[in-house]
Design brief:
With 307 residues, the chain is mostly helical. It is built from 15 helices and 2 strands. The chain is 68% helix and 2% strand.
């Protein structure tokens, strides 16, 4: 993450605004979970163990990451940074670092997570992202409005946006907008990205389907709990505290809770096919220079992304 500190800093305004593009934060952390889950050797793997091959593959991958942050900004201009195209360097850097530090076998084992991460980080048109998020949010807001009015006893202010409800007797000071809770860093797009990424931790198509449904269920439970807390806090303490729960700070807390819950489910899953401790191969040799090269590249990427 430190190699892409600049990208995270540029993503911060979208997170604070609860914009649909904030889902990229969930993609980054979901990729980390996926890589950790797939990091253990399996009982059957490609028998690749040659440090020369590791360097022949790893160094070009690191070079691709540096190329993205040096050549592409000159061609695309400011749009390269505002569209978060710089995040495309992350999968290449991770692939190169894994190859140099842990060997080509590890890269082959993690090829699908890295490919999925690259696809999830592609710079989709902002209009398309906003449209998809809007369509997904409309249904969710209908449920939130129904629950707020019938269960929590809130009211719908006349002329207010669809996602706005009023606590207590109403009035402008009592209005709370719930739309951002479903479009920000813990909204529908973030949930969809996590479902796609972590569904691959299941064994086979059936296992992937079950894992995807499980991730979606955990997200739904987390969001339901968050909205319930917002209604309860707003009724008891006022609209200001409810805004805090459904605002950007609430997004970050909700995403953190969601990731911890998913980590407990995914990382402790004893999938069949893992290599027994006695069958695990020896680690790669002479990893010191490779680690130094990886750190130097990461430092260069950090500088290129923040200059």
């Amino acid at each position: 993450m430190s190699a892409f500190a600049g990208a995270l800093h540029r993503l911060a305004p979208e997170i604070r605004a609860q914009a649909p593009g904030a889902y990229l934060l969930a993609v980054l952390f979901g990729t980390a979970l996926l890589l950790l889950q797939r990091s253990r050797p399996r009982s059957v793997e490609s028998d690749i163990h040659d440090r020369q091959i590791d360097y022949l593959i790893g160094i070009p991958l690191l070079s691709v990451a540096v190329f993205v942050l040096t050549a592409m900004p000159a061609r695309l201009g400011p749009r390269f940074w505002t569209s978060h195209d710089d995040l495309l360097a992350a999968p290449a850097f991770l692939a190169g670092a894994i190859t140099l530090t842990f060997g080509t076998r590890a890269l082959w084992r993690l090829r699908f997570p890295l490919l999925l991460s690259f696809c999830a980080l592609l710079p989709f048109p902002r209009g398309a992202t906003d449209s998809v998020a809007g369509h997904l949010t409309d249904g969710g807001l209908a449920v939130v409005r129904a629950a707020g009015v019938t269960v929590a006893g809130w009211t719908r202010p006349p002329g207010a946006p669809p996602g706005t409800l009023a606590a207590g007797t109403g009035g402008p000071a009592a209005d709370v907008s719930f739309g951002g809770a479903l479009t920000g860093a813990a909204g529908f797009l973030a949930a969809a990205a996590l479902v796609v990424l972590l569904a691959t931790t299941g064994a086979g198509w059936r296992g992937a389907t079950r894992r995807g449904l499980l991730v979606a269920g955990v997200w739904g439970l987390t969001v339901t709990l968050r909205l319930g807390i917002a209604f309860a806090v707003g009724t008891a303490a006022g609209a200001g505290d409810a805004r805090l729960v459904v605002g950007p700070t609430g997004d970050e807390v909700t995403l953190a809770v969601l990731l911890v819950a998913l980590a407990a489910l995914v990382l402790t899953d004893a999938r069949p096919g893992r290599a027994a401790r006695a069958d695990r191969r020896e680690p790669v040799t002479r990893a010191g220079p490779a680690l130094a090269l990886t750190l130097a590249t990461g430092t260069a990427l950090c500088w290129l992304g923040t200059r």
